[in-house]
Amino acid sequence: MPLVKVKTKAQITLPLKVRRALGIEGGDYLQVEVQGNNIVLVPQALVTKLPPVTLSEEGQRMLEEALEDVREGRIKEHDSVESLIAELHDEAHQNPALP
Question: Tell me: the pLDDT tens digits for 38-73?
C-alpha cells in the first residue's frame, strides 16, 4: 500500500494507481470521512443547481401527498431498478383493474 506525505498546507497527492482505479481526475471532489483511526476519501459527483420550479396546484398537492407518505412510512425501498420493476409487475398481475 503506497504512502503519501502530508505537505505543509495539509495537502496530499493521491498515487496514480489509486486515481486510475477510481477514475479520479484533477478538479474532482472527494468526501472526507473519519472512521475510527482511518481517513476515508469517497469520490463524489456534483450536480448543477437547477432554477426553482413552480408547481401547479395539482403538482403541489401531489408533492404534499408524497411527502406525507414518506413521513408516515408508507414507502418501499428497493436495492435495484430490477427489484422495483418486478414488484410493479407483481402488483399489476394481482390487481388487473389498476390503470
Answer: 999 999 988 888 898 999 999 999 999 999 999 999
**pTM given for the model:** 0.46
- Whether residue 27 is contained in a domain is answered as no
Q: For the purposes of burial, counting CB atoms within 10 Å of the CB of 6, is it exposed (0-12), middle (13-18) or buried (19 or more)?
A: exposed
Which grid coordinates are listed for 75?
414507502
Contact 14, 26 (CB under 8 A): no
Model confidence pLDDT, tens digit, residues 16-37:
999 999 999 999 999 999 999 9
Is residue 23 left, alpha or beta, with left meaning phi > 0 and alpha meaning psi from -120 to 50? left
What is the identity of the amino acid at 27?
G
Flag whether 69 is in a domain. yes
Number of domains in the chain: 1
